[in-house]
Write a structure and sequence with these properties.
The protein is α/β, with parallel strands linked by helices and 356 residues long. It has two domains: 183 residues, Rossmann fold (3-Layer(aba) Sandwich), CATH 3.40.50.1370; 149 residues, 3-Layer(aba) Sandwich (Rossmann fold), CATH 3.40.50.1370. The longest helix is centred in the last third of the chain and has 19 residues. The protein binds N-carbamoyl-L-aspartate (NCD). N-carbamoyl-L-aspartate (NCD) binds next to α5 and α9.
Length: 356
C-alpha cells in the first residue's frame, strides 16, 4: 500500500480517498466508515438485509446468546467528544448486542490530549487496546485523520465516523435510508423533503449523498434563506443528475413528499459564526404542524434525526399515525449499526445463515 503523508491525503478528492477505506483495496468492502459517498447500492441492500436479520434473531433468547457470542473477544471504544445521546447509545447497544466489550471517552480533558498529545498519537494509543473506534468530533477532518493514522499503524483497526463537525454523519444516513425504505417500501422514484438548518446540519448532507444510490429520487430542500444547503451538495446532485429544488414554504410541499425529514436549527454553531442571536427557536414556517398530516400521502413518513426542539408539533409525539416514524427511526439506528459492525468484522454469512 502506498503511504501518503496526511497533507497529501487530506487534499485528495473523495473518489481518490475511497480505496483507502477498504481493508483489501481490490474489493469494495468497507473497513473505515467515514463518508456517505463510500456506499453503493449492492452494499446498502445487503446491509439492510443483515440489519433485518439481526433484528429478527434478537427476538429469541437463543438468538440473543448467539449474537453475543460473535464478537465476545473484541473490544470497542466510543470516543465521543461532542454531545450525543442516540448515536452514542445505539452504537454502545449495537456493540454489546454483538458481545463486544465497550469503553467510552466523552471528554478529551480526561485524556492526554489535555497535556498536548496530538490526536494522531492519542488514536494510535487507543488502538493498542481496542478493535474498533467509533468517533464523534467537532472538527470536520478528525475522523479522517484517525483513519489515516490507522492506515499508517502496525495495528490497524477500523474507525467509524459518528458525526464529524458540520460535514458528515454517514451512519445516520444509513439508518435514515433504512427507515425510508421500511416506511415506503421502495426509494426509487420518491420525493424526499429535507427541512431546517441545511447549512450546518450534517445529517442532511450525508443523506443527500446516500440518496444518489436510488433512481429518480427528487429532493426538496426547505430552509430559511440563510441556512440553505451547501453549494457543494448542489454540485454533487447536479453531477449525478438528481433533481432538487429549494423553497422556504414547507406547507406548499407536504403533499408531494414521500418522506419529510425535519431537522432542528443548529444554534450551537452561532457563536463561531459571530451570530449574536440564537436562531430558529420558533420560526413557524419550518415547523411540522399536525394538520399537515391531512395533506400528506397515505403511505409516507415524517422523520427526524433527533434531538428535536420545537420543529415538530409536540402533540404528534402522542398521535397514533403510522407515518410518524421518528421514534422508530432511532431504534433502526441500533440495528443498522449492529449490521455495519458485523459486516466490517466479516460476520455477514454466519448471521445470514443462522437457523432459528
Ligand atoms: C444529529 C447530529 O448529531 O448531527 N443527531 C444525531 O446524531 N441523531 C442531529 C442534530 O444534532 O441535530
Amino acid at each position: 500500500m502506498k503511504k501518503l503523508p496526511w497533507e497529501e491525503f487530506a487534499e485528495l478528492p473523495i473518489s481518490d480517498k475511497l480505496p483507502f477505506l477498504s481493508i483489501d483495496r481490490t474489493v469494495n468492502e468497507p473497513f473505515h466508515v467515514l463518508f456517505a459517498q463510500q456506499f453503493d447500492r449492492p452494499f446498502l441492500d445487503s446491509l439492510f438485509a443483515l440489519a433485518d436479520r439481526i433484528r429478527k434473531i434478537h427476538k429469541t433468547s437463543d438468538g440473543v446468546i448467539f449474537l453475543r457470542s460473535l464478537l465476545a473477544d473484541r473490544q470497542a471504544l466510543n470516543l465521543f467528544v461532542q454531545p450525543s445521546t442516540r448515536t452514542f447509545l445505539s452504537f454502545l447497544c449495537a456493540e454489546q448486542n454483538l458481545g463486544m466489550m465497550t469503553a467510552d471517552i466523552r471528554d478529551v480533558s480526561t485524556s492526554s490530549q489535555a497535556k498536548g498529545e496530538s490526536l494522531q498519537n492519542t488514536i494510535r494509543t487507543f488502538s493498542s487496546y481496542v478493535d474498533l473506534i467509533v468517533m464523534r468530533h467537532p472538527d470536520k477532518g478528525a475522523c479522517e485523520l484517525a483513519a489515516w493514522e490507522m492506515n499508517m499503524a502496525d495495528r490497524r483497526i477500523p474507525i467509524f465516523n459518528g458525526g464529524s463537525g458540520r460535514d458528515q454523519h454517514p451512519t445516520q444516513a444509513l439508518l435514515d435510508v433504512y427507515t425510508i425504505r421500511k416506511s415506503v417500501d421502495e426509494i426509487d422514484g420518491k420525493t424526499i423533503v429535507m427541512v431546517g438548518d441545511l447549512a450546518r446540519g450534517r445529517t442532511v448532507r450525508s443523506l443527500s449523498y446516500l440518496l444518489k444510490n436510488y433512481r429518480d429520487v427528487s429532493i426538496i430542500y426547505v430552509s430559511p434563506e440563510r441556512f440553505r444547503i451547501g453549494e457543494d451538495i448542489k454540485e454533487f446532485l447536479d453531477h449525478h443528475n438528481m433533481p432538487f429544488r429549494e423553497t422556504d414554504d414547507l406547507e406548499s410541499v407536504v403533499g408531494e413528499a414521500d418522506a419529510i425529514y425535519m431537522t432542528r436549527i443548529q444554534w450551537e454553531w452561532d457563536s463561531a459564526e459571530g451570530l449574536a442571536e440564537r436562531h430558529g427557536e420558533s420560526d413557524p414556517r419550518f415547523v411540522f404542524r399536525t394538520e399537515f398530516l391531512d395533506k400528506m400521502k397515505p403511505k409516507s413518513c415524517v422523520m427526524h434525526p433527533l434531538p428535536k426542539i420545537n420543529e415538530i408539533d409536540p402533540e404528534l409525539d402522542y398521535l397514533d399515525d403510522p407515518r410518524l416514524v421518528y421514534w422508530r427511526q432511532e431504534r433502526n439506528g441500533m440495528w443498522i449499526r449492529a449490521g455495519l459492525i458485523a459486516r466490517v468484522f466479516g460476520l455477514s454469512d454466519v448471521i445470514m445463515s443462522y437457523k432459528e
